[in-house]
Structures are given as C-alpha cells and as structure tokens.
C-alpha cells in the first residue's frame, strides 16, 4: 500500500475527545501518525501518551508543567520535543508538516489554534464548538481563504454533514431545515423549581455520553444544544429559522436533514464519539472506529419530544438564547459563549447555583453590546469584556 501517512496534531489530547481520537489513530498505524500532542497541565497523562505515540512535539500550556514533562520524557529516552505556552499551539496548528489538526481543546482557549489551522489550509477536525461560536463568520472566512477542509466532530454536526449532499452550493436550494436531536440530559424530567438544588456531581452525570465536565454541565442546562444550533448556523449557512431541535432521549439518531420534498435523511449509531472522529480522520473513506454497531433487534424504542411539551422551555431557558443571539448583531454569540464559560466554571467551583448559570448569561447579554467585531483582536476584546461582566454578575449572585 502506498497511501502517505496522515500526520495529525491532537490539541487537547488528554481530554475526552483527545483520548478517543488517539484510540482511533492507534487502530490504523498504516494511515495516521501523531505529529504533536497538547494538554493544559496533565503531565502524567501526556507523558504516557508520548510514550505510546512518540510524537515529534508535545505542548504544555502551563510552563512549569512543561518543564516537568520535559524531564519525564528525557528519563524515558524519548526524542519528543516539549514546547510551552499558547503560542506553541498555534505553531503546531500551522506547522508545514502537519496534515490534520484535531481541535479538541475546551472553550474559547482553542480559538487561536483553530484559526491558525484554518488559515494554513489544514484538514481541521473541529470538536471545539466554542471556537466556532466565538469566531463565527470570521472563522468561516479563514477556512475559505485558507482552503482548509473543515470536518465537524460534534456528533450532531457530523450526522448533518453525513446527511447533506456533497456539494455545499446545493444546500440552500435543496434543504428545508436541519433538525438537531438532543437527549435532554440528566434533568429531562426534573421539576424546574428543583433545579436550584442541583450539585456539580449530579450535573456532570450524563445518561448517554461520557464527556468533559464543561460540556456535561452544558448538556444538563441544554446550553450545549444552544451552542450547537449556533455551530450549525455557521457550519452549514442556513438561517436560524431553518434550524430546529427535537428531544430524542435515546441518542440513536444523531441529527437529521429535511429536504424540500419533505424527505428526511438521518445518521444513526451508538453514542460513541469514535464514530464521528473516525469519519473525520478518514473522510471521504470509512475506517473501523472501535464502536459497537447498533443492534436493531435490541432497540426497544425511539421517542421524540417537542421543546414546547413537558415544561422543557421552563426547564431549559438557555436554549432559546441561541436563536436570539443569532438574530442580534454579530459578536453576540461570542458574548453568550464567554458568559456561559464563566458561569459554568463558577457553578463547578461552588460559587453560584445551577439555575443561576442562565441568570449570569442573561445579565451578560444585557450588559455587553456586541457590534460586529471584524478582526481577531476585536473579537478577543469582546470576549474579555464579556468575561469581566459575567464574572462581576456571578460574584453578585455568589452565595
Ligand atoms: P475535556 O475537558 O475532557 O478536555 C479538554 C482538553 O483541553 C484537555 O486535553 C485539556 O488539557 C485541554 N485544555 C483545557 N483548557 C485548556 C486551555 N486553556 N488551553 C489549552 N488546553 C486546554 O473536554 P472534552 O469533553 O474532550 O471536550 C473538548 C471539546 O470538544 C469541547 O469544546 C467540547 O464541547 C467538544 N465536544 C466534546 C464532546 C465529548 O463527547 N466529550 C462531544 C462533542 C463536542
Ligand atoms: Mg454534540
């Protein structure tokens, strides 16, 4: 076989998506080679990954963790070079020898490296939805101008991408709407009035998916779905009125596309992130992912709930903010994302209650006016302004 090895930089390698990515890569040594791995500060985990995959580079965002990692790798006799700081993430994302970048850092912290990969025309496997929600049009322009190949890794967006025609210029004319499915998370049946008592441990226990803490809290508030609606808006270019959400607790259908003739095309599978990861890595080919296949004989049922039923609007008030932010001036989605990142952290730190996450988001949207940031610097300034306002509002609510 003479297929060239695809050289991959996995940014956020020690997280839930990073670990699943390396699991898929390890199944195909004839196709993929790990060029770089990165983590914020988990030395042990990154050291073990370096031992297994022997990358050319390892990046630690935290400087002292980087020194510790370098000493550890030297003691193993590894050639891997250790780099430190956020700028090293950008260097890896645009490195001329890198073919593909897995963007699996959590939060807006991943934006700069995503933009760098886009501008450098990489195959960009985008798990980091916050980067797209913040970057919006600016990010999509960088993808177009850099000639990057953007492959969504979020399971819903991978499902939509797989259900759409190959040629994006046909989407607007052929597609009626996109329907994102949502599990409803751990509190789908919970009395809205009791959400104030939810603890971080309860909020991160998702019924169907094992994920990082931030996205798990977002799934419990359904802010994750709000971010995904915004993500879909930018990825697929349809207006917000053509993006719908339906609750589907079993997470078997990962999302759907409804065409002009009412025909619906969906993608199904077991809830295992290795499926969209393998799809992104191998596209347009298909390779083994390690996931269990669906067993239709054992599938008891698939059910669906409208957002307007069962008190969902009251239980998940944050979801509607997606459409509001998309209809507001450009940059509003960045404000919403910053507020939510700060609010979720404050909740995980025990500073605010679960139901107050939404109140911080609302207060921040009210306090900060977005006005179409045109450059990365303007965007980062808006992000910082929104974080300050959200921090202020969380402190006021703090018990
Ligand atoms: P996680 O918390 O498990 O891992 C995050 C990774 O990013 C870790 O490697 C961590 O070291 C690194 N990191 C954290 N903060 C950083 C910073 N400030 N600078 C540099 N690196 C940093 O998160 P996850 O669940 O793997 O999610 C990663 C991204 O993928 C998120 O944007 C999430 O929304 C998205 N996503 C995750 C899933 C899932 O199943 N976990 C599904 C869809 C989308
Ligand atoms: Mg998702």
Automatic annotation (TrEMBL):
Superkingdom in the source lineage: Bacteria
Domain DXP reductoisomerase C-terminal: 268-388
Keyword Ribonucleoprotein: no
PANTHER family listed in its UniProt record: 1-DEOXY-D-XYLULOSE 5-PHOSPHATE REDUCTOISOMERASE, 1-DEOXY-D-XYLULOSE 5-PHOSPHATE REDUCTOISOMERASE, CHLOROPLASTIC
Cofactor: Mg(2+); Mn(2+)
Native source species: Ramlibacter aquaticus
E.C. number(s) listed in UniProt: 1.1.1.267
Pfam families in UniProt: DXP_redisom_C, DXP_reductoisom, DXPR_C
UniProt protein name: 1-deoxy-D-xylulose 5-phosphate reductoisomerase
Taxonomic lineage: Bacteria, Pseudomonadati, Pseudomonadota, Betaproteobacteria, Burkholderiales
């Amino acid at each position: 076989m003479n297929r060239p090895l695809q050289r991959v930089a996995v940014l956020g390698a020690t997280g839930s998506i990073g670990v699943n990515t390396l699991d898929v890569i390890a199944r195909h040594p004839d196709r993929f080679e790990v060029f770089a791995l990165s983590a914020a500060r988990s030395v042990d985990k990154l050291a073990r990954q370096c031992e297994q995959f022997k990358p050319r580079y390892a990046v630690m965002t935290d400087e002292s963790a980087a020194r510790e990692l370098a000493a550890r790798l030297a003691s193993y006799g590894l050639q891997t070079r250790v780099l430190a700081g956020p700028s090293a993430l950008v260097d890896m994302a645009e490195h001329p020898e890198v073919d593909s970048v897995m963007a699996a850092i959590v939060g807006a912290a991943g934006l700069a490296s995503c933009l760098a990969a886009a501008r450098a025309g990489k195959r960009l496997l985008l798990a980091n939805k916050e980067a797209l929600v913040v970057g919006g049009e600016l990010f999509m322009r960088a993808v177009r101008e850099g000639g990057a190949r953007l492959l969504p890794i979020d399971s819903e967006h991978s499902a939509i991408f797989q259900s759409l025609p190959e040629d994006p210029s046909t989407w607007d004319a052929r597609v009626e709407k996109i329907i994102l499915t949502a599990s409803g998370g751990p509190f789908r049946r919970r009395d809205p009035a009791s959400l104030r008592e939810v603890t971080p441990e309860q909020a991160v226990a998702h019924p169907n998916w094992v994920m990082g803490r931030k996205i798990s809290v977002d799934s419990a508030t359904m802010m994750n779905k709000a971010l995904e609606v915004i993500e879909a808006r930018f990825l697929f270019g349809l207006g917000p009125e053509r993006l719908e959400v339906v609750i589907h607790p079993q997470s078997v259908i990962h999302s759907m596309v409804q065409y002009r003739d009412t025909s619906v095309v969906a993608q199904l599978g077991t809830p295992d992130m290795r499926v969209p990861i393998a799809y992104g890595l191998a596209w347009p080919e298909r390779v083994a992912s390690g996931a269990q296949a669906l067993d239709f004989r054992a599938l008891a049922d698939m059910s669906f709930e409208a957002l307007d039923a069962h008190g969902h609007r009251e239980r998940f008030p944050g979801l509607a903010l997606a459409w509001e932010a998309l209809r507001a001036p450009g940059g509003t989605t960045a404000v919403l994302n910053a507020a939510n990142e700060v609010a979720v952290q404050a909740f995980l730190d025990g500073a605010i209650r679960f139901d107050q996450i939404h109140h911080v988001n609302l207060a921040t949207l009210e306090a900060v006016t977005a006005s179409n940031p045109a450059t990365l610097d303007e965007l980062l300034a808006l992000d910082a302004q929104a974080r300050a306002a959200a921090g202020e509002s969380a402190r006021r609510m703090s018990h």
